[in-house]
Amino acid sequence: MTEKTTYLTKEGLEKLKGELEELTNVKRPAVAKRIKSARDMGDTSENAEYASAREEQAFVEGKIAELQEILKNAVVSVASSNGTIAVGSKVTVHIDGAEEEFHIVGAPEADPLLRKISNESPIGKALLGRKVGDKVQVEAPVGSLTYTVLKIK
């Protein structure tokens, strides 16, 4: 696996660390107990509880490995104070006659419903490094859209 730098906000980093802590210190031991309990029931070859617990264990271990990889390559980005958009910036843009605010975050933190867009998304990529007044063309499924940067926080 190639190491890829993952940009995160400070809040995003703390959230991922908390999730990793929860998985390693709470979920992992709970799943191990489920497996032991299911094993104690006897034959594991036809034991649905055992199979379910093993599937959950695989999921938990996979998520732990994923989070460890992200955190190993994480770089905390602080919103730029020089007036340009960076990971961590809250940006107000004008698009199609309306104003919208986005929070540019690292990919693991993205949540479009909360207006948190990834720095790796087409809009996020296009906005990075821009300043107030800049116009940005972004290709979208509905066609090309023009975003005008109004405010950067």
Can you give a write-up of this model?
By secondary structure, this protein is an alpha/beta fold. The chain has two domains: 6-76, Transcription elongation factor, GreA/GreB, N-terminal domain (Helix Hairpins, Orthogonal Bundle); 90-152, Chitinase A, domain 3 (Roll), CATH 3.10.50.30. It is built from three helices and seven strands, in the order βααββββαββ. It has helices at 10-39, 48-72, 122-127; strands spanning 6-8, 74-76, 90-95, 98-105, 116-118, 135-140, 143-152. Strands 5-4-3-7-6 form a five-stranded mixed sheet. It has a two-stranded parallel ribbon with strand order 1-2. The chain is elongated, with a radius of gyration of 21 Å. The model has no long low-confidence stretch (mean pLDDT 91).
Keywords:
5-stranded mixed beta sheet; two-stranded parallel sheet; Chitinase A, domain 3; 25% strand; 153 residues; alpha/beta; 40% helix; Helix Hairpins; single chain
Low-pLDDT runs: none
Distance between the termini: 35 Å
Radius of gyration: 21 Å
> Strand-and-helix sequence, N→C?
EHHEEEEHEE
CATH architecture of the largest domain: Orthogonal Bundle
- Please indicate the count of domains: 2
Name of the level-1 CATH class of the largest domain: Mainly Alpha
CA-based shape:
elongated
Strand content: 25-35%
Identify the CATH homologous superfamily of the largest domain: Transcription elongation factor, GreA/GreB, N-terminal domain
Largest sheet: 5 strands, mixed
User: Count of helices?
Assistant: 3
Mean pLDDT: 91
Number of strands: 7
Spatial strand order of the main sheet: 5-4-3-7-6
Which secondary-structure class do the elements indicate? alpha/beta
